Amino acid sequence: MPELPEVEVVRRGLDRWISGRTVELVTVLHPRAVRRHVAGAEDFAARLVGQRVGTVQRRGKYLWLPLGRTPAEPECAVLAHLGMSGQLLVQPAAAPDERHLRVRIAFADRDQGELRFVDQRTFGGLSVHPVLPGGLPDVIAHIARDPLDPAFDEDAFHTALRARRTTLKRALLDQSLISGVGNIYADEALWRARLHYERPTGTLTRPRTAELLGHVRDVMTAALAQGGTSFDSLYVNVNGESGYFDRSLDAYGRADLPCRRCGTQIRRRPWMNRSSYHCPRCQPPPRTR
Question: Does residue 3 carry a catalytic annotation?
């Protein structure tokens, strides 16, 4: 599933190509793509037509298109979740339809391209929601700020981390605690911090928490600069291009390969229906009492 860097790459592309444009026509080709819009596909399309798209926003792994007659006062927003295979592509109107095209959004200035939602596995989706003061869609009000957000509160994060009776990787993937971090970047940040994924959160000191957050930010910033991590053709930007940060990964996906730091073989372990990758020497497991 795309994490913060991949979603931010898409957000920047959308902001460049569709912000400030007025929606003229919406075609829903597969109802499952708008299943989270409880009023149905017809209502979804009707809510968009005639609306102007504001500055595209993101929180964690969610992004949204503010809609309103004027950009300064959005009336609602189109919330997008990419799921496992969702793509938001900006294509010329004359371009052939993609095989798994689900929603088409055309604008008044059609010569500037249209927005297409393509989703092979249909786990992602689009939906329209009211916005809270400040422009956040109401359904994601529980999602925490991400570590690249200037308003992210490190002290509050450390306090919440210490209060949770859980382990580090579980905490990093808890989107109500810190958003945008998924399996890939959690493993990468923990490798850089030399911390085992099963270490109890209550054992972290404030300096250690600050160090871990620094590594989370560093790995995400590096991934963002390289267009994100693309293990297959499903993770692309709005122009259909893949990122290449997978070539720079130090832990994730490197099972049985030597640790770049000490030479010990990276281990892969099953974890919550996923996989965790770590170096057994650099990231020793916590001592049991």
Answer: yes
| Nearest alpha-carbon partner for 273 in 172, 212, 183 | 183
163-211 residue pLDDT tens: 988 999 999 999 999 999 989 999 999 999 999 999 999 999 999 999 9
169 is catalytic: no
pLDDT at 287: 81
Q: Looking at 16, 261, 274, 281, which residue is catalytic?
A: 274
C-alpha separations of 143 from 61, 139, 152, 265, 272 in Å: 9, 9, 12, 36, 21
- Look up tokens 């299943």; give the residue: 35
Domain regions of the chain by residue span: 4-140, 154-278
Active site residue 147: no
**Catalytic annotation, pick one of 58, 61, 169, 192:** 61
Region of residue 21 (left: phi > 0; alpha: psi -120 to 50; beta: else) = beta
Mention the CATH class of domain 4-140: alpha beta
**Catalytic residue among 2, 66, 74, 137, which?**
2
CATH topology of domain 154-278: Helicase, Ruva Protein; domain 3 (1.10.8)
User: Strand pairing of 62-68 and 52-53?
Assistant: antiparallel
Whether 4-140 and 154-278 share one fold: the answer is: no
